[in-house]
């Protein structure tokens, strides 16, 4: 009887199920150490400036946070060189995606997105009753031409995850500009740049100047990845001030907390730490890439803080690595492995080599 109380579309969805905790896995497999490389977290944590700011944090915990995120807004606006009114903040990018979806989508509308890509785009479209038009990636890359063909007058949002999660591939500047020129002006294009800070490719697009050319463009960024603040849940969107003002109606009044706002401001003040993490990540990616090439393994070249190995035996490979003390993320056609600290990467690659040499080479055959 309770099913009658909720939207019909919720019956086709499953609530997010977090994986087992590290302690649960230790107890199950009798392991002393577990390395989690499944959630694309920064293995180096966050800047010491964040810890210092929080240690000196003094506030009345009984009071609501600054609903406008004023100090953070000014700091981020300066960092990305935009009008403070062009920013909207959320409890991680998950909430910003929810805000956009709730504000724009109806049962008469549709979204266009790549597949595979970040699952929250589809989830919130389904909740709002909108049609989801998924366009398969080609060798892990967005198929922009095919995506354009799926856009029609009822398309409210086109989602571009750049770099894409879970493949790590990216849309270059030339391709993106050509795409934006052909998308109808009444369709919002959302560039999810959650992994922006990790990108080292020279032809990755500089998207912020494009906001002046395209009112129907919005850019998303987060403090959860390279800044190492996933536990504080702070993400933001950048777009036309007129659009942001409309989206603010849907945003909950006190959605980012005092500690998160303080931590994010402090993180922006330590560019040296950020660049240290980027260099370490690039070294880790290079090590994984060399390993895959040496062993003739299928993978997608990544510009994020993870790499995707292609295999049709993802769950079996996940289980084998779990037994060796590593948590990775399985997908239907492969596994996503977060780039960890140097020693963790080395040990995981040794485990993969052991699997190839002595157990099941077919597990890593795409």
Automatic annotation (TrEMBL):
Keywords: Amino-acid biosynthesis, Aminotransferase, Histidine biosynthesis, Pyridoxal phosphate, Transferase
Pfam families in alphabetical order: Aminotran_1_2 (PF00155)
Catalysis performed (reactions): L-histidinol phosphate + 2-oxoglutarate = 3-(imidazol-4-yl)-2-oxopropyl phosphate + L-glutamate
Presence of the UniProt keyword Transferase in the record: yes
Pathway terms, separated by semicolons: Amino-acid biosynthesis; L-histidine biosynthesis; L-histidine from 5-phospho-alpha-D-ribose 1-diphosphate: step 7/9
Modified positions (N6-(pyridoxal phosphate)lysine) in chain numbering: 225
GO biological process: L-histidine biosynthetic process
GO MF annotation terms: histidinol-phosphate transaminase activity; pyridoxal phosphate binding
Cited PROSITE patterns: AA_TRANSFER_CLASS_2
E.C. no: 2.6.1.9
Keyword Endoplasmic reticulum belongs to the record: no
Cofactor(s) named in the record: pyridoxal 5'-phosphate
Record family assignment: Belongs to the class-II pyridoxal-phosphate-dependent aminotransferase family. Histidinol-phosphate aminotransferase subfamily.
PANTHER family per the UniProt record, alphabetical: HISTIDINOL-PHOSPHATE AMINOTRANSFERASE (PTHR43643:SF3), HISTIDINOL-PHOSPHATE AMINOTRANSFERASE 2 (PTHR43643)
Subunit structure: Homodimer.
Protein name per its UniProtKB record: Histidinol-phosphate aminotransferase
Organism this protein belongs to: Scopulibacillus darangshiensis
Gene, per the UniProt record: hisC
């Amino acid at each position: 009887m309770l099913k009658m109380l909720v939207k019909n579309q919720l019956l086709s969805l499953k609530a997010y199920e977090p994986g087992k905790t590290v302690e649960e896995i230790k107890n199950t497999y009798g392991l002393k150490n577990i390395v989690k490389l499944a959630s694309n977290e920064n293995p180096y944590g966050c800047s010491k400036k964040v810890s210092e700011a929080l240690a000196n944090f003094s506030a009345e915990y009984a009071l609501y946070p600054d609903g406008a995120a004023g100090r953070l807004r000014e700091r981020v606006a300066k960092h990305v060189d935009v009008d403070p009114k062009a920013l909207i903040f959320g409890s991680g990018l998950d909430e910003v995606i929810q805000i956009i979806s709730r504000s724009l989508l109806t049962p008469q509308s549709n979204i266009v997105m790549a597949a595979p890509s970040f699952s929250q785009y589809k989830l919130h479209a389904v909740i709002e009753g909108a049609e989801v038009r998924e366009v398969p990636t080609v060798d892990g890359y967005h198929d922009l031409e095919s995506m354009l063909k799926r856009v029609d007058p009822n398309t409210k949002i086109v989602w571009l995850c750049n770099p894409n999660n879970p493949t790590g591939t990216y849309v270059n500047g030339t391709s993106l500009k050509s795409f934006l020129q052909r998308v109808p002006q009444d369709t919002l294009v959302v560039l999810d740049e959650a992994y922006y800070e990790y990108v080292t490719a020279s032809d990755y697009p500089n998207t912020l100047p494009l906001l002046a050319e395209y009112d129907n463009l919005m850019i998303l960024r987060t403090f959860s990845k390279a800044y190492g603040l996933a536990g504080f849940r702070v993400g933001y969107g950048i777009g036309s001030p007129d659009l942001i003002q409309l989206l603010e109606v849907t945003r909950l009044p006190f959605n980012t907390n005092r500690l998160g706002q303080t931590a994010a401001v402090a993180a922006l003040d330590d560019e040296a730490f950020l660049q240290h993490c980027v260099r370490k990540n690039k070294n880790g990616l290079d090590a994984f890439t060399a390993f895959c090439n040496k062993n003739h393994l299928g993978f997608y070249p990544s510009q994020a803080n993870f790499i995707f190995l292609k295999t049709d035996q993802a769950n079996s490979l996940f289980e084998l690595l779990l037994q060796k003390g590593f948590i990775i993320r399985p997908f239907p056609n492969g596994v996503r492995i977060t780039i960890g600290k140097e020693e963790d990467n080395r040990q995981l690659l040794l485990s993969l080599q052991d699997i190839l040499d002595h157990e099941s080479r077919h597990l890593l055959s795409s």
